[in-house]
Amino acid sequence: MQCVVNRRAQFLASHHYSLPELSETENLEKFGRSSKFPGQGHNYTLFISLAGELDEYGMVLNLSDVKQVIKREITDQLDFSYLNNMWPEFQQTLSSNENIARVIWQRLAPHLPLVRVQLVEHPGLWANYMGEGMQASLSISTHFSAAHRLAPNLSSEKYSKCTRTHGHNYHLEVTVEGEMDSRTGMIIDLDALNRVVENDVVKTFDHFCVNNDIPHFAAIVPTTENLVLYISKLLKSPIQKLGATLSQVKLFESPQLWVDYQGNGTETFLTVKSEFSSAHRLAHPDLSLEKNTEIYGKCARVNGHGHNYQLEVTVKGEIDSCTGMVVDLGALNQVIANFTEPLDHGFLNRDVPYFGEVVPTAENIALYISNMLRSPIQELGAELYKVKLVESPNNSCEVYASDIESTSVTTVQNQPVLATV
User: Fold this and answer.
1) Which of 173, 177, 391, 398 does the annotation list as catalytic?
2) Catalytic residue among 162, 216, 267, 299, which?
3) Model pTM greater than 0.90?
4) In the predicted structure, residue 279 carries a pLDDT above the cut 50
5) Are 390 and 312 in contact (CB under 8 A)?
């Protein structure tokens, strides 16, 4: 079974957009203020995603080693640099967010099993590159405030105050994909994309009551699932006219609840986020302290350490035509709470029998939770899609349910080999 681990890094750099074959006026018209020398700077945040089988120590890779590779190949070179003159790749193609991500991939690929490079230029703009030639994706974020009520099709007894008119500060993320231009390194006119989202979505929803002011929702329950489906329909054609493809719309009702839509009929992905606080120690009981320290570093210290874990559980399903939901949200939250409560405010190695035999790395904890949740979520009529566990701002891992073998947690517990999956 494969697991995806994510490592964060940061660097500060400046750049500007200017093509030598264009005049100063033409560059200004094409790139706006970004064409002015010496340009602008950013606090870039880089997320490197790696995939692999879990080894006998419960890890895909030693993240300390990964950190050193990223430092040597990328951040030591780019930090406090002027990107236009830094690497030769930026002479042919400008250092757009998309192209920087592509070049970082090329420089890390010989050393690491990459599946994704994400480069965040600022909280409202980031690019993803997955090793597919000049193909990349670009995401922007915005927000709007709106009122709604989960009515008329939902029972006030079951959904209580949500059937009353209330409101949210919605956070919206729009992702487009396409081929990077060989000179500009861009897949879309970013200013034009921002205008489309502002004019077609934000102005439609911001400071309105969705049920009363948007005709589409006169008879359709304005759940987050139905909202994201409608927003996708609003954006698909205008984005095509800009020369890119709408690949994903993500709508956050709150920091703990969001829905992704990727254009597949009425299938959506709903994510709920929760937290638990646990102590653990990374140590194989059959190895010496010296050997465990060699493998796990300071994480092997005998009295353990701990984290405020952030857990993101994503389920997928079709939107129910009556309720507008993919799953009963209250029931889903209860299922998750039932299985995470024993992890909260405990020492995993001692208080959870499974981790008496299995090293509680983030990967193994995510796998354990995935195996525990799959069947109860199926009973709710949805399908577990992914479990993401954030151990710290720098480290996280993802387990996709489709990659999990049919072996149950009980079977895995009875196996003597640590970290077997």
Assistant:
1) 391
2) 299
3) yes
4) yes
5) yes
